[in-house]
């Protein structure tokens, strides 16, 4: 063993660099005074400020899971009995003309016929959904649904 071949088992420990105006490390000339230098520093998250600027959804009530899909307008068998005569064709347009349904924002709504009441007239229903009981009553009176 010679003096020039000796090596240390542990190399020298370098001191951690801090950045108080130095070239690199910790604050590095960017300062650290004020709020960031104090204990308990929690600056307000920027995302929260952006979130607070978005307007709230008004009028949704307590149920925010309620569907935005438009529900069909309901017409009962009793309404058809009262408004239509024997052999008429029931469509969304004829229901609108008789005043049984109304347009929504200028658009024709979907229509569903429910089986409340008694039907004695033969009616042809087209372009409208119908419940099972309404379908039975329309077909029992001699009408048809398409």
TrEMBL record:
<dbReference type="InterPro" id="IPR005749">
    <property type="entry name" value="Ribosomal_uL15_bac-type"/>
</dbReference>
<dbReference type="InterPro" id="IPR001196">
    <property type="entry name" value="Ribosomal_uL15_CS"/>
</dbReference>
<feature type="compositionally biased region" description="Polar residues">
    <location>
        <begin position="1"/>
        <end position="16"/>
    </location>
</feature>
<dbReference type="GO" id="GO:0003735">
    <property type="term" value="F:structural constituent of ribosome"/>
</dbReference>
<dbReference type="GO" id="GO:0006412">
    <property type="term" value="P:translation"/>
</dbReference>
<comment type="similarity">
    <text>Belongs to the universal ribosomal protein uL15 family.</text>
</comment>
<feature type="domain" description="Large ribosomal subunit protein uL15/eL18">
    <location>
        <begin position="75"/>
        <end position="144"/>
    </location>
</feature>
<dbReference type="Pfam" id="PF00828">
    <property type="entry name" value="Ribosomal_L27A"/>
</dbReference>
<keyword id="KW-0687">Ribonucleoprotein</keyword>
<comment type="subunit">
    <text>Part of the 50S ribosomal subunit.</text>
</comment>
<dbReference type="GO" id="GO:0022625">
    <property type="term" value="C:cytosolic large ribosomal subunit"/>
</dbReference>
<feature type="region of interest" description="Disordered">
    <location>
        <begin position="1"/>
        <end position="47"/>
    </location>
</feature>
<dbReference type="InterPro" id="IPR021131">
    <property type="entry name" value="Ribosomal_uL15/eL18"/>
</dbReference>
<comment type="function">
    <text>Binds to the 23S rRNA.</text>
</comment>
<protein>
    <recommendedName>
        <fullName>Large ribosomal subunit protein uL15</fullName>
    </recommendedName>
</protein>
<dbReference type="GO" id="GO:0019843">
    <property type="term" value="F:rRNA binding"/>
</dbReference>
<keyword id="KW-0694">RNA-binding</keyword>
<keyword id="KW-0699">rRNA-binding</keyword>
<keyword id="KW-0689">Ribosomal protein</keyword>
<dbReference type="InterPro" id="IPR030878">
    <property type="entry name" value="Ribosomal_uL15"/>
</dbReference>
<dbReference type="InterPro" id="IPR036227">
    <property type="entry name" value="Ribosomal_uL15/eL18_sf"/>
</dbReference>
